[in-house]
Amino acid sequence: MPRALCLMYHGLSANAAAPLGADPHYTIAATCFADHLDALTAAGAHLGSARDGLQQASSHAVWLGFDDGDASNYSQALPILQERGLRADFFVNPARVGTAGYCGWSELRAMAEAGMSIQSHGLTHTYFTHLDASHLREELRVSKAEIEQHLGQPVTLLAPPGGRAPSGLAATAQALGYSAVLGSAPGIARWPAAKNPTAILPRVAVTAGHLSPRVVQWFQRGQWALLPLQIRYQGLVLAKQLLGDGRYEKVRARLLGSAP
Ligand SMILES: [Zn+2]
After folding, report:
1. Binning pLDDT at 50, 70 and 90, where does residue 195 land?
2. What CA–CA distance (Å, rounded) separates 216 from 194?
3. Which of 7, 87, 98, 111 has a CA 20 to 30 Å removed from the CA of 50?
4. How many domains does the chain divide into?
5. Could you tell me the CATH number of the domain that includes residue 69?
């Protein structure tokens, strides 16, 4: 069965410090991202987008994705990918496109024309677990329609904001024309999901401090190397359930030292 390590990035900074307003935990230096690509290539990984990878049957795949549509997707990530002839998925929120700190439609169009895959991260970045069924369907339907209308490229993938996935999300997404949902639970993606066609594919969040030896270890050792991240993720899921999203975000901001 084909398998892939699916990496989830956010913003890239031109120097070591995160840009003003960006989440420092999720922002990594652009040079560090370039190091990841070069180290993974040297280790034999087949790097590319999930959109393209899901059509292939590689067992050495590493999928590259960016959530949120940060302005650095265009200014930093695009040239680094293009220099290496690589493609990635960019999960964006149409309601944020063109606002301060985010890519505009003209930038996303240039990225799409360069072979990048522009996909849905919902319409407004509201957590899907906070929406009733009809609002959830609107987020999925309108975000897909707006991206397709602006870029003329089919939207086939959905990544729920914050990885928050209400039960039945993949089935709802499929009914609205998406072919796969990528979540935030760490793990190795396997497809086609013969036994469970509505499964949510795992992704590994790359955060500040994840240097290339660690990322290569995830690729080479797979599930075993991801075990500490999986245990930590389950702990965070439990904390969110116990505290609720609002209180959880405040505690997280205090622990990580970012703005509340
Ligand atoms: Zn997000």
Report:
1. low
2. 28
3. 98
4. 1
5. 3.20.20.370
Q: Output the CA 57–ligand 1 centroid distance in Å.
A: 28
CA–centroid distance, 125 to ligand 1, in Å, is 6
CA of 216 to the centre of ligand 1 (A): 24
pLDDT tens by residue, 142-169: 999 999 999 999 999 999 999 999 999 9
- Identify residue 167 by its one-letter amino acid code: S
Confidence of residue 197 (pLDDT cuts 50, 70, 90): low
| Ligand 1 centroid to residue 27 C-alpha, Å | 12
In angstroms, what is the span from residue 67 Cα to ligand 1's centroid? Answer: 5
Tell me the CA–centroid distance for residue 92 and ligand 1, in Å. 8
Ion ligand 1: protein residues whose beta carbon lies under 5 Å: 67-68, 161
Q: Is residue 234 part of a domain?
A: no
The Cα-based distances of 51 to 100, 146, 171, 250 in angstroms read 28, 18, 18, 35
User: pLDDT: is 236 or 67 the higher one?
Assistant: 67
| 56 φ, ψ (degrees, to nearest 5) | -120, 175
In a domain, 20, yes or no: yes
In a domain, 244, yes or no: no
Q: Per the domain annotation, does 101 fall within a domain?
A: yes
Domain that holds residue 84: 3-222
Distance 253 CA to ligand 1 centre (A): 16
Percent pLDDT > 70 in the chain is 93
Question: Within a 10 A sphere around the Cβ of 122, how many other Cβ atoms?
Answer: 26
Residue 37 structure tokens: 């690509």
